Model the fold of this input.
Amino acid sequence: MGRKRKTDEGKSGSPAWMSTYGDLVTLLLCFFVLLFSMSSIDVAKFKAAMSSFKNQIDIMPGGTSLTDNELISNGISQINGLKTIFDNKVPLEEEGEEDADITKSKLKEAKKDAEEINEYLKKEGYENEVEVEYNSNIIKLTIEGEILFESGHAELTPDAVKLVDVISVKVKELLADKTIQIEGHTDNRPINTVRYPSNWELSQARAIAVGYRLIKEHNIDPSKIAATGYGEYRPLIDNSTPEGRAINRRVEIKLVSEEYKNIDELNEVEE
Done:
């Protein structure tokens, strides 16, 4: 009987070259992490890069761009129903003199327009139905949803038609250098119908209804109007009470400066 030939068994584990390669990659990683930790960011260049993204138009029509604006009320009370919102994007003392003068001039002009709208609404008997707010780039008219629509519907009521017709007079006067952003908002009570599967559809249908009225009956250029529905996702206050839900059901008409091209958040107003 012949003897079994002895076979050489290979060494267990990974090849030697792989261990060396792994060590090399690890050292390279540590090297680049060290370089990054020692690097410094040019703040001026970083701010310049970030500012290039400001004042851009969203891809979706009628959408809103995110901004870091903080909006505060100055407590003006000499005109009923009128609140002043200041643009707090950059403190005036940190702006150049020219930019600060432009901002002040725009704010002064917006205040004048907002006061005229408020006085006009007061004259027509609608000062309690419409809240007027402004900053240097936007004039916002907020209308309670119950005034405009029946519950679960997006057709303008007869009273709503009169109100929108009244508002359209001043809107048309200011459209030379502005566009119109119409936003629909609901409370958080769910809706699930064939026509409106959710509050998104309902809120947008309501914004569109107001927009159609402005276009068809008052010949406002459709290219100057965008309609957006936010559903229940941008409440002004808590939805836990009937009063809170009533406040959150609303339509907002924003007159936005053409040069601004960016919709500010005017919902976070400090009372």
User: Anything to note?
Assistant: Confidence is low (pLDDT under 50) at residues 55-95, 262-271. Helices lie at 16-38, 43-51, 97-124, 145-148, 158-173, 199-218, 242-248. The two ends are 103 Å apart (CA to CA). The first strand starts at residue 71 and ends at 73.
